[in-house]
Design goal:
- The complex is a heterodimer of chains A (157) and B (337).
- With 157 residues, chain A is of the alpha+beta class.
- Chain A has a single domain, classed as 2-Layer Sandwich (Nonspecific Lipid-transfer Protein, Chain A), CATH 3.30.1050.10.
- Chain A has a 5-stranded mixed β-sheet with strand order 3-2-1-4-5.
- The longest helix of chain A has 16 residues.
- By secondary structure, chain B is of the alpha/beta class.
- Chain B has 2 domains: 245 residues, TIM Barrel (Alpha-Beta Barrel); 51 residues, no CATH class.
- Chain B contains 11 helices and 15 strands.
- In chain B, α3 packs across α4.
- Classes of the chains: A alpha+beta (157), B alpha/beta (337).
- Chains A and B meet through α5, β5 and α6 of A and α1, β8, α10 and α11 of B.
Chain lengths: 157, 337
Amino acid sequence: MADGFCKAFTIPGFALPSLVARVGARLPQWPHAVALAAGFNAVVRMGLLPGENLALLENRSFLIDVLDTGCRAAFTFRDGRFRPLFSVPDAPDLAFRANLSAFLQIAARQEDPDTLFFKRALSVEGDTELGLVVKNMLDAVEWPRFPGMAAPPLIRR
Amino acid sequence: MPHCKIPELVCPAGSLPALKAAVDNGADTVYFGYRNDTNARNFAGLNFDRKAMVEGVAYAHARGRHVLLAINTFPQPGREADWHAAIDGAADLGADAVILADVGLLDYARSRHPGLRLHLSVQGSATSYEAVNFACREFGVRRAVLPRVLTLAQVERVIRNTLAEIEVFCFGSLCVMNEGRCWLSSYATGESPNTLGACSPARFVKWEKKPGRMDTRLNGILIDRYDDREPAGYPTLCKGRFEVNGATYYALEEPVSLNALELLPEIARIGVAAVKIEGRQRSPAYVAQATRTWRAALDALGEGPEGFTVRPAWRAELGKLAEGAQVTLGAYDRPWR
């Protein structure tokens, strides 16, 4: 775009072909939950999530539902660790549902979750306050800069 | 070319990464609050603890930017000490100013910390130059943030009749435009920005997904119903659709966001000292996008107001961030008085 106004790299909004979700939904779902819980636990070990907020997650159930891949991951937080749930609860305390692109845009801090929510590209169901705790906790994480890694494109002037 | 001072860009931060995003993307000043009910964005997990504040202030000051601490709620009976401690903490921290609404707190800050610069919050609801001048005279207030109820002509009238700097909102969610005096949230939930520091607190909010639609409720009150393609908004009573005399519509206020970009040359011409972006409750991504866009616009204005035009890229970027995905000039441009 003109005058260098736009950032160098953006994750586009996209939806995968519906075949992907049909196949994905037939695959075992537990590996996603195990991988996600392990990732979050690594973040906990690095001390990036404040303890007072983590306490608010205790024994609550969470579901991440990636609509266009058909992948779902359910997990809970107990005794200082995220733990995968091997069966998806009927009514999790908090469920985030979106296409893969929206989750990637949130993870890269490219899009504001509120923006995606207002656009109906992200759905949040369950305990709204718990959702806010999770969103604000992730927003407040100071991701470490690894050597050789450029600053995220968003915060480059 | 007539002299045209470029307004200071004041940006929101609900977290340390948001503060850094604001500074890195060109904010002149960042405003933030404590993690408690001394500020009007008291949402779960949002805002700054002491450690984050110290780091945030150091980050901004090292880059020559200013920080403002919002202590813009009204002390609850018997708990005044919490608000006083917040003001003492701001002075300690080296904040460049505190944003206050309550006259008791203005008085406390003035007498206890005479060197601390005071800004009158939008929640202080000063809509006339008489009100602004009262705050200047009695408490030494240096800047007032005007409520979003005035037309630009009225803003200009205030500026011409006061020595205080005037700050106006330029972008972000609009509320019912009755700042500091609104009890709608209290009516629905028993809690409001003035009391607990949050409008329509999240624990009262329910998003109910039904086939083909989503219902939003605030403490059980149905606020709105969206079909699956309709943009949604946060369920505050003022932005609900209600049945009035047989018609269902936004009876109080349309759920739109303020975007005063196209009024920027006029805002600068009348002598507005600072323009403010709303949204401490939003993510670092929002802060980065909104700040970067307004910085670009202010820089373009600095090259001369005659040639200033709103670029389509700015319009698109800000339009995307808006609640309800619609933008308005708000009261600044209303024809009625």
